[in-house]
Amino acid sequence: MTASNAESKPIIAVSLSGGGARAMAFHLGCLRALNKCGLLTDLDVLSCVSGGSVIGAIYVTHDGSFESFENEVRRTLRRGFVKPSIRIALTSREGLKAVLCRLELAVRSLLRLSMAPLSWISFRLFTLIGLAKEQRMPRSVPRRTASRTTILEETFDRFLFHGQELKDISDRKPKFVAVATELRTGTAFYFSPEQSGCWRYGKVNPDRIRIARAVVASAAYPLLLPALDDAYIFNSRDGSSRTERVTLTDGGIYDNLGLAPLWPDRHPAISVSIPKPDIIIACRAGYGLRLGAPTVTFWGRIISSFYTTFDRAQNAALNRLYDLRDAGRLSAIVLPYLGQADERLENAPSDLVKREEVDAYPTNFNAMSDVWIDRLSKRGEQVTLAVLRQHNPELVENRGQPRNSS
Which pLDDT score, from 0 to 100, does residue 124 have? Predict the structure, then answer.
């Protein structure tokens, strides 16, 4: 236990990684394991990314037993989000807005293309007369106020969160944090009940931010979903406030493990204030070691390069966890991992769901069958319990039975 909390109850944080519906099912099993061993009701912070944000938000907004929470997650996974989103796109005002917005952007692009020769001539003239770049007329970038992403937001809101805003869960435990990526600055953007924002812009009052908005910002995978184009009034540390335009996409681009807001050396005055944890349970729904096909095409090289950087960033974050524990900044770390090497689990049950049985499941939000829900969630539960018993038995010993409420 860290020195600051040596005489008090340790602060426990759980992070739920990204990974679409696969992550939701795996994390369901992780949460079930924490509930079984009595840890779930002691959580202080729930930091989530992408698919982890969906199940995390369901958990903190749910009223009732863990069993009813699990039933809701299972219903959500069986339904998926693709078909409901298509239905909303075809029958709602949000779908029409997305079409009109896309047409407007297409027309603007055509106009800009037709004006390209004149723009080039103007550029040459400005260069000849010595007009500095910052003195020229700034280019106006139109906002994309509706898109497939806002349709998915409407789907989340209609089926899961029913108009609830972040302020409505300010008294809930654990504290919910959804991690998104702000593309203009390349920084993490955090959504939480008391305050949201990023260190570059400052903090924004989240009173009118819907939970569905925070979740979709965290889950907007950039290859499939346009970034959210929004504007907030930010409050800086010097007391000033200003409106800034933000471009938000999947939090996994910045930190797919959801660990960024949990680092104990973060200063609370920077971006959002989150309790500093003593124990971090990092649930990771990613693949095992990657071995792709030989790369012979341009796009193959680009994709492989992306995943190389992506994998290295996650490995660096995990190494930092070990360094913080070894330095005494964290009293314990627990790492349930979908891609866990089974032979390293000393306390694995005889009916363990093997890694190779689940690690090929795709990271999307399509409907999931009961067979896959059972398989992925069972893997999450089994690995979490095995890792706890092997590396951190002190966290589960002498604990009472789990409570019924979530």
Answer: 64
